[in-house]
Amino acid sequence: MPELPARPGPAPEVVGPAPHGQRSQTAPVMLQEELWERMRALPFVYMAPTLVSVPHARSLFIPEGIGTGPREAFQAGREWAHIHPHHDGSLHLTLTEPLKDDIEKFGWGVRHPEQDTILVYGPRDRAELELIWQLVQLSYAYAVGEVP
User: Fold this and answer.
1) How far apart are CA 105 and CA 56, in angstroms?
2) DSSP string spanning 63-95?
3) pTM to 2 decimals?
4) CB neighbour list of residue 139: distance below 8 Å, 6 or more residues apart
């Protein structure tokens, strides 16, 4: 992935550590749903109740035997990503340390204060949706062992 552009405007309000989420600049529900549809259509993923997030978060898992991602590529068990309920719209992803550094540096999210994951702010418009979709795909690649 090329270097991230700076996210325009101020950072949204974030609460946490538990629950850890976004409380302002909430992504429009239609963009949240489009992102979710793309996420759940990735090969081999399945949806199951989250092992680490708030009730009603939508979580994605990769079955045992699929891919060779390291333990750090998963939040708990085989859960690699989740998107928070509509009133929040942010998501937690597992990513490599350099990519998490860039996400924070360019204002696209913040590290979880207690877990080895990063909160990525929900997309406010279609351009942000495309950028965040790229981050989701990198997280998926990390989980299935396609990222060195």
Assistant:
1) 30
2) -TTS----GGG-SBTTEEEEE--TTT--EEE--
3) 0.94
4) 73, 80, 81, 93, 94, 95
Residue 6 has pLDDT above 70, yes or no: yes
CB of 122 closer than 8 Å to CB of 13:
no
For β-strands 79-83 and 91-93, DSSP reports them as antiparallel
User: What's the rounded Cα separation, in Å, for the pair 52 and 87?
Assistant: 18
**Each residue of 86-113: pLDDT tens digit?**
999 999 999 999 999 999 999 999 999 8
Alpha-helical runs (H) found in 1-148: 29-40, 97-105, 126-143
Q: Is the peptide bond before 63 cis (omega within 30 degrees of 0)?
A: no
Handedness of CA 24, 28, 142, 140 (dihedral sign): positive
Token readout for 6 is 């700076």
Cα 24 to the center of its chain, rounded Å = 17
Q: 120 phi and psi, to 5 degrees?
A: -105, 130
What does the pLDDT read at residue 64?
A: 92
Q: What is the pLDDT of residues 44-90, one digit of tens each?
A: 999 999 998 988 899 999 999 888 899 999 999 999 999 999 999 99
The beta-strand segments (E) located in 9-57 are 14-15, 21-22, 46-48
